[in-house]
């Protein structure tokens, strides 16, 4: 892919009486400076490739190593798959626009991108919550761990997460279809974010806004509360251990997950605070990069560098690959 900058502007409208049907939006991206486009293209292409490769290695290592066929790594492999899909919904389109020297995205493509973005963002959130519950059971109820976290429950938790995200995303997308837009169709972002799309509407969006804030709050507060409760119980259990070495060993099993949770929710909080300002600037899209690109890219490194079992699985995976040549 050639990463050369420079942009052309053009947008199409279909007039129907007093109603304007928008056929395209303009994604303004992170910067409108033509000289920065090759740099942005190179950086984001590199980050995307690292994200896909790193998470694929995590998935392959878990599948190929029978020692990792446990609930914790089952959810981790699904988190890696979700991260690949999460970044794929946004970054390729951004790179194509830079390479094609354009900013256009069709109305249909924009809604499709928004739909899948909400699915995988929600899945990331719910999977992190389920993984916190898994660590809670493993540390606080170790003797009953295999009974509680049985394959059926793990499958049901994953299925429930998918159903919640699919239903929420579909409902939000259907609600957007009833909205009409003005001729001002510039989205100050590098992807089609629901909140930014609703700001461009000419028709009343009260129902959309209520649904957005209610469900976002629900899917934000409940999972975060679950994570905080799980870790409060984990810390309480660890404090009851007399040996300092045993305390460190037990808590180290949560270190990777806790790092990923902090990165994801910290970036999400940054996006919320910047989007809520009265005079939004370019800080919103930049903050979004943290949880849409940086967090999925760093997750494989966090889990491989801080997890002895994962390091061993990756070493065996590379060894098998070298011997097969």
Fraction of residues in β-strands: 5-15%
Q: What is the helix fraction of residues, given as a range?
A: over 70%
Number of helices: 11
Q: Mind describing the biggest β-sheet? A: 3 strands, mixed
Quaternary: single chain
User: Any low-confidence stretches, pLDDT <50, length ≥5?
Assistant: 6-19
What order do the helices and strands come in, and which of them pair?
Blueprint: E1 13-16, E2 19-22, E3 24-27, H1 37-64, H2 71-88, H3 91-99, E4 104-106, H4 107-140, H5 145-148, H6 151-177, E5 186-187, H7 194-199, H8 206-239, H9 244-275, H10 283-305, H11 308-323
Parallel strand pairs: 3-5
Antiparallel strand pairs: 1-2, 3-4
Helix pairs in contact: 1-2, 1-3, 1-10, 1-11, 2-4, 2-10, 4-6, 4-8, 4-9, 6-8, 9-10
Q: Brief overview, please?
A:
With 325 residues, the chain is mainly α.
What features would you describe in this structure?
The chain is mainly α. The longest helix has 34 residues, at 107-140. Helix content is 71%, strand content 5%. The protein is globular, with a radius of gyration of 22 Å.
